[in-house]
Design a protein that fits this description.
Helix content: 25-40%
Distance between the termini: 28 Å
Strand order of the largest sheet: 6-5-13-14-15-12-16
Strand content: 15-25%
CATH topology of one domain: FAD/NAD(P)-binding domain
Shape: globular
CATH architecture of one domain: 3-Layer(bba) Sandwich
Number of helices: 13
Structural class: alpha/beta
Length: 404
């Protein structure tokens, strides 16, 4: 007996919400995505979509569009003074097409938004979500949605439907999307450090849809406690600090004309015990959030979306599906949350001892096999075999299926 199509509400029009909406519509579910903004749009500058995330985008049908706009990333490279303290090369995994993809968040959002609309998902804007109960969403002002078979929370780290993080991590970052300029490697994320207390980074992020100019994401680590003081300090003084660390950033800094050209992002570590609470299922940062050091946030969200959609498609009832969703994602998430928790102080902290260990012990050891292969697989999102765990066909399997 065929199960009747599900009615599903998705709270949040971000990476996880849009990806899930498309996947569910492909299965025949009725999907309504609610967002608080009148015109849904992305927040932030650029990200690296890792190989595991690209697998999901291909399954959605958005992989080609994102690849056309993004910039292939073959290497993550960082210096502390003259010492190499970060050098991860995707090709160490020994496979073809093994690189990540630097993408403007706007380009990724547009590709996912277009896919969701093309699939027939309904997107309802201008609805600020404040709660959920008995299959219904509650909105600011006292109104409620219709009743759904399932409510999915894709509202991110500060979701009112999830448990908030205890506190933000001490370090956040200033971000800006700028025109590509300077002597930077167009296929690498480059970073410069002063111990672990200062970090600057440059990431190629390709272009936005409809534009030809190539862009880069520039970021600078900054403590929450220092953000107000930074805004009160003349911008020229901050630029001098950046130039002292990394003179090559001069053509990028020339494009930053006011404090408002930079957006301050905060981060936190938090993982719910289970992705299913009393009234909804959680995906992405509403379930698990971490520092950006491993570059896994959007990729985790995409994997969650595919895992939940597949569980709903293959299981006989809703409770079994939600249990299967938790089972297939929990190991990978816990593994990466633990590694992120351990790695973060090595790149963003005030600890001189941890920075010394990174520079003089861990950095040389990371270049001795099999460490390069392990680090490349870690960055690619492949520790814990998440693709096979959620039943996502590999590119080779999809090719074979097409040939068959």
């Amino acid at each position: 007996m065929t199960r009747a199509p599900l009615d599903i509400a998705i709270a949040g029009c971000g990476v996880a919400g849009l990806a899930l909406a498309t996947l569910l519509r492909q299965q025949g579910a009725r999907v309504v995505v609610y967002d608080r903004l009148q015109t849904p749009r992305p927040l932030g500058s650029g990200i690296i979509v890792q190989p595991v995330g690209l697998h999901v985008l291909d399954a959605i049908g958005a992989g080609r569009a994102v690849r056309e706009l993004g910039s292939p990333i073959e290497r993550l490279y960082g210096l502390s003074g003259e010492r190499i303290v970060l050098d991860v090369r995707y090709r160490a995994r020994g496979r073809q097409a093994a690189c990540g993809l630097g993408v403007h968040r706007g380009a990724l959002f547009q590709a996912l938004y277009d896919a969701a609309l093309a699939s027939g998902a309904e997107i309802v804007s201008g609805h600020e979500i404040v709660g959920a109960s008995d299959g219904r969403l509650a909105f600011a002002g006292g109104k409620q949605s219709a009743t759904f078979d399932l409510v999915v929370d894709a509202l991110g780290m500060r979701s009112p439907l999830s448990r908030p993080p205890d506190a933000p991590l001490p370090f956040g970052a200033l971000w800006a999307s700028l025109d590509w300029a300077g002597p930077f490697d167009p296929a690498a994320l480059e970073q410069r450090y002063v111990a672990a207390r200062k970090m600057a980074g440059v990431l190629p992020i390709g272009r936005l849809q409809g534009e030809e100019r190539q862009q880069t994401a520039f970021f600078w680590s900054l403590k929450h406690a220092d953000h107000a003081a930074w805004r009160a300090t003349p911008l020229a003084a901050w630029k001098d600090e950046v130039l002292a660390l990394w003179p090559a950033t001069a053509p990028l800094l020339q494009q930053i004309r006011s404090h408002d050209d930079l957006v301050f992002a905060s981060y936190a570590h938090r993982t719910l015990r289970a992705p299913v609470s009393r009234h909804c299922a959680h995906v992405g940062d509403s379930w698990h959030c971490a520092s950006p050091q491993l570059g896994q946030g959007a990729n985790m969200a995409l994997l969650d979306a595919f895992a939940l959609a597949r569980a709903l498609e293959t299981q006989s009832n809703l409770d079994a599906a939600l249990g299967e969703y938790a089972r297939t994602r929990l190991w990978h998430i816990r593994l990466y949350q633990a590694v992120s928790y351990l790695f973060t102080p090595a790149y963003q902290s005030d600890s001189a001892m941890i920075a010394w260990l990174r520079d003089f012990l861990l950095s040389p050891l990371s270049r001795i096999p099999p460490a390069p292969q392990m680090l490349a697989a870690l960055v690619a999102g492949e520790w814990g075999a998440p693709v096979s765990a959620i039943g996502l066909p590999s590119p080779r399997e999809r090719t074979r299926a097409g040939e068959g």
